[in-house]
Amino acid sequence: MKNIIFIAPPASGKGTISDYLVNNFDYNHISTGDLLRGEINKKSEIGLKINDIIKSGQLVSDDIITELLKNNLLKIKGSFILDGYPRNINQAIKLDEILNEIKVDNLIVINLTVPKDVLKNRITGRISCPNCHAGYNENIPSLMPKQSGICDQCNTTLEKRSDDNAETFEIRYQTYLDETKPVLAYYQDQGIVRSINVDRALNEIFNDIEEMVSED
Ligand code: AMP
Predict the structure, then answer these.
(1) Rounded to two decimals, what is the model's pTM?
(2) Residue 12 to residue 7: CA distance in whole angstroms
(3) Cα distances (Å, whole numbers) of residue 140 to 19, 122, 143
(4) N or C: fewer beta carbons within 10 Å in the chain?
(5) Residue 64 — very low, low, confident or very high, per pLDDT cuts 50/70/90?
(6) How far is it, in rounded angstroms, from Cα 22 to Cα 46?
(7) For a pocket test of ligand 1, which of 19, 35, 59 has the largest count of ligand atoms closer than 8 A to its C-beta?
(8) Which residues form the pocket of ligand 1, taking CB atoms under 6 Å from any ligand atom?
């Protein structure tokens, strides 16, 4: 299977698609957002430094995130999904260096497209279970928990990410347009970019993704 890089705006479904690929095709999933939130929860030196940056919707420094990414990528055996890296051209260049060093190729860059208003609606309703990590959405009837604010699967109180609000969304979306979207042009030159409309039913999205990642 191909190694995947997602280039996509916030709340476009990178995590949901990654879970599907991990469960069905044995992919390794590296989410740089999850790595950073892990550092915050551990209250590590890095975690203390980045807490306010993440809350405000800005990107953390390239050095911090590249080091974390590299440490995790070196541990992986098998195909991987990069969810959240690279977020700018400098990170794309650093990633090329790391992949050359560990002799990895067979890459596909998947560009998830979805209208801004749909993303905003998703992000402002997004909640998840801190215990079993099940995801829900208060703005989407089919994704609401049975009892408001409580996990259907383990009865834990659901939580909202500190950066999932309307104000921070605007900053994150603008950062995506200014810094991350231009990374597509970097990969377009290599002929490895595939785009997919993710404002559709999940089963249709999963089918298209499956075809993309098993291309020869
Ligand atoms: P995500 O979970 O991908 O939405 O990321 C949440 C937040 O983590 C982002 O808004 C950034 O503050 C930070 N972050 C995640 N990945 C990166 C990255 N590659 N470079 C810089 N900041 C990042």
Answers:
(1) 0.93
(2) 10
(3) 20, 8, 5
(4) C
(5) very high
(6) 28
(7) 59
(8) 10, 32-33, 36, 53-54, 57-60, 65, 84-85, 87, 91, 163, 172
